## 1
Amino acid sequence: DKAITIKVNIPKNTPKILADEVRVAQVLLNLIDNAIKYTENKGLITISAKEQNKFVQVDVSDTGIGIPEKDLPRLFERFYRVDKARSRELGGTGLGLSIVKHIVSAHHGDVSVQSILGQGSTFSFTIPKV
């Protein structure tokens, strides 16, 4: 409906990770769902992966509305919402990013976000490679 383009950039030689496939899929689905929700019509979402030292880093980037800098430190807290009115409109419980953080932590990885208000966001997570 929003005519969003999704690009995937995962090199064939990306190292393997040892992970719970269902849980990592849950992480990806949550990040992609958020990217779709907060990206305007005809925007772009890019999913990429790369080797980063002893980890594989996965990035989900969008050209969406971005997140105010003051909200970034609290983004992965349970029930935290940047814009409560918009969140109600789009649905959700405020638990998604907290779940992402816990799943990635359980895999001995890390999760982070970079965002510029009005330009988009990149959510990144790492999982140790095999």
## 2
Amino acid sequence: YVMKAEHGFDLPRRLQIEFSKTIQHITEDSGTEIGPGVMWDAFQAEYLPSEPAFRLRSHELHTRTIDHHGVTSIQAQLEIDGAAHSVYGEGDGPVEAFVAALVAAFGDSVDSNFDVLDYTEHAIGKGANAQAAAYIETLSDGGKVRWGVGVDPNITTASLRAVLCAFERQQR
């Protein structure tokens, strides 16, 4: 409730459950209830860090039709711990293509079964200045479920940022 009322984030139920574990650790460590400000700080630190290790710098999407089926390709430029990386992947849509690109580029050093379980999006605010919020639930080889959150005026970019957030969180 606090995240929606105070900041406009309508968290999916399973993300609420995941985030509540973070809040529970904070309350157990402090021995007191926490206020909306501390909750927001914890949310930002976990899902929207100001200095993420994985940053989406740019992306280019192309869609083509093969046998009446759309195939999306993505070329994305990332910054990972300060180093530039270019990734390429294909899929049924932008999210699937980006997941394929990440697995292809980093599959040797990370979970190669990184996959999306759920996706939700909504607007934060109204009118031309609205931001898009995207939430991605992911699964790794080891069965770890981790959520990612992305925010951007462009819904596609918000979705890709959510994937990258979840990918980074899966690596922890």
## 3
Amino acid sequence: MATELTGREKTLAKLKAIPQAAREAIKTALKANSDQIVGMQKRLVPTDSGDLRESIRAEWGDVKLASSANLSSAGGGMTIKGDPDLTVTIAAGDDKAYDARFVEFGTAPRDQGGWAEGTKHPGTTPRPFFYGPWRAMRKKSKSNVARAVNKAAKRVAAQ
């Protein structure tokens, strides 16, 4: 008795569509998650001139930050290694806002040089704004991505 397989082409087409649907779902989830993290960071950052707040951003792809004064978190823990289309880097600091790491971590007391030589700078207290929201949202962001992939797979399978 021969077994007849029906719907093979339709099933194969669905299986081929899942990776693309999953990629789109991941990208959408990463965008929403990074926007939420950046928004939290911008609300928490202390403002003087507003340059530091304006320097907080999410960048797509393999980003090499030019300044060592930048704070960055590759994707908020949400990167797909080796895939620049699904990589988000959240960064703070640029040429105008070079003090991002000093604001986040504070500075130690130190002897001053130059025109203030002989005096002691008291240091600054940390005013964290960057890593707190990233840590708070990391687990939720990962589950949002997983949920989006599952929904995309179910949507493709239901077609």
